[in-house]
Amino acid sequence: MFKSVKTGLGLVFALAIVSGCSTSTNNDSSASSTTPAVATPPPADTTADTRMDDIPLEDVVYFDFDQSLLKPATRDLLISHAERMRAGNTGPVRLEGHADELGTREYNLALGERRAKAVRDFLVLQGVDGSTLEVISYGEERPAQTGSNESARAMNRRVVIN
Hints:
The protein is built from 5 helices and 4 strands; from the N terminus they run ααβαβαβαβ. The chain is an alpha+beta fold and about 160 residues long. Strand 2, helix 4 (about 105-125) and strand 3 (about 135-140) form a beta-alpha-beta unit.
């Protein structure tokens, strides 16, 4: 019984993918007016295309507890930011370092600054002009989430790219 259900669901899923990937050669203008518009990212080979600037990038980089080392996923995001900054479409950028409430105020200010400088240094290594990057630390003073649990603390260990 379960095997036939799993097989049926697999078949339905495969048909949905195949039908979604098919193209139509019908040039009827009424067909396009009834189809809802779906935003799709530009192809990977259109880096010079201005549409790339229309795709919003995440503007928050998260860190592990008591760390200022960039995570691999963070590096991919920062490379995308660096590409836009090198294109000259962003102007001055502020890197705001933050920390959770654990530790002293002074320590958290220094940790937020180390985090923001780590982001700045990575962007500079990617070819961004360092004079367009401003580093500031708020330490624990501007939490993204209030609370004394681990999920709130994790959201507060960050650098915001403005």
